[in-house]
């Protein structure tokens, strides 16, 4: 499964285009939201709000170079905005997510290990490491979106990657802010672990065949019911 979402089909009816866009992007976006928030309810709220806003502004969104990037950014901003209300009350909780039924036992174990390790991170560290090591965002882009300095991005990233690397046993050098801990490369073992968890989550949401629990309906029709 690829993390690259297919471009929205052009030329059809707006409602049909949005439905197709939702069906293609929902599992992928829900997986990212869960990894950013470590809370399925918060992920649900952010994803639903992002799609509602996209539906309301669909002519504008569909004209973007990357409609999926627009929805992803909207989702992340919703999580960041809401996170300020519970930031200092944060504590690790058990995360409940849909299982990818087609995954092997080993793939499931590795994905769950990565998700549990993410759940031990404070919210800011988790945001930064997912945005950089999974989504490939630059320090500058993360700084602008989260409203923190580039130095703070680097500091949070180093702490997050050091802890994750230790918990997942993917790096022997954890005591120094080495380039290997801070740099995302195609062969970076931590990025590989996070990508594997994201793919496993996406497959789980896709197999579930409906929107996150708590909506008023399933799929794009459920989004319309909440407008």
Which labels suit this protein?
DNA-binding, 227 residues, mainly alpha, sigma factor activity, 11 helices, 67% helix, RNA_pol_sigma_r3/r4-like, RNA polymerase sigma-70 factor (ECF subfamily)
Write the layout of secondary structure elements.
Layout: H1 14-37, H2 40-56, H3 58-62, H4 67-86, H5 105-119, H6 123-134, H7 139-146, H8 150-168, H9 179-182, H10 189-208, H11 219-225
Number of helices: 11
Q: What letter string, H or E per element, gives the SSE order?
A: HHHHHHHHHHH
Q: Assign a percent range to the helix content.
A: 55-70%
Oligomer: single chain
Q: Give the number of domains.
A: 1
**What is the makeup of the main sheet?**
none
First-last Cα distance: 31 Å
Low-confidence stretches: 1-10, 172-183, 211-217
Structural class: mainly alpha
Counting DSSP E segments of at least 2 residues, the number of strands comes to 0
Query: For the residues shown, what is the average pLDDT?
Result: 81
What percent of residues are in strands? under 5%
CA radius of gyration is 17 Å
Give the CA-based shape. Answer: globular
Account of the 3D structure:
It contains 11 helices and no strands. It has one domain (14-177, 184-207). With 227 residues, the protein is an all-alpha fold. It is globular and about 50 Å long. Residues 1-10, 172-183 and 211-217 have low confidence and may be disordered. The protein has helices at 14-37, 40-56, 58-62, 67-86, 105-119, 123-134, 139-146, 150-168, 179-182, 189-208, 219-225. This is RNA polymerase sigma-70 factor (ECF subfamily). It holds the Pfam family Sigma70_r2. Belongs to the sigma-70 factor family. ECF subfamily. Residues 113-164 form the RNA polymerase sigma factor 70 region 4 type domain. It comes from Streptomyces iranensis.
């Amino acid at each position: 499964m690829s993390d690259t979402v297919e471009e929205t089909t052009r030329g059809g009816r707006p409602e049909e285009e949005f439905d197709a866009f939702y069906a293609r992007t929902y599992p992928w976006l829900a997986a990212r939201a869960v990894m950013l928030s470590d809370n399925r309810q918060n992920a649900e709220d952010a994803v639903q709000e992002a799609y509602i806003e996209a539906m309301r502004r669909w002519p504008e969104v569909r004209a973007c170079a990357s409609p999926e990037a627009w929805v992803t950014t909207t989702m992340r901003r919703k999580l960041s905005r809401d996170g300020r209300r519970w930031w200092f009350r944060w504590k690790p909780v058990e995360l409940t997510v849909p299982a990818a039924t087609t995954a092997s036992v080993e793939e499931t174990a590795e994905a769950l290990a990565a998700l549990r390790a993410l759940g031990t991170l404070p919210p800011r560290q988790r945001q930064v490491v997912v945005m950089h090591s999974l989504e490939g965002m630059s320090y500058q882009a993360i700084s602008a979106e989260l409203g923190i300095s580039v130095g703070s991005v680097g500091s949070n990233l180093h702490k997050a990657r050091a802890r994750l690397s230790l918990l997942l046993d993917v790096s022997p050098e954890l005591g120094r802010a080495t380039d290997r801990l801070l740099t995302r490369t195609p062969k970076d073992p931590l990025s590989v672990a996070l990508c594997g968890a994201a793919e496993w989550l996406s497959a789980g949401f896709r197999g579930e065949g409906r929107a996150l629990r708590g909506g008023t309906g399933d799929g794009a029709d459920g989004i319309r019911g909440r407008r």
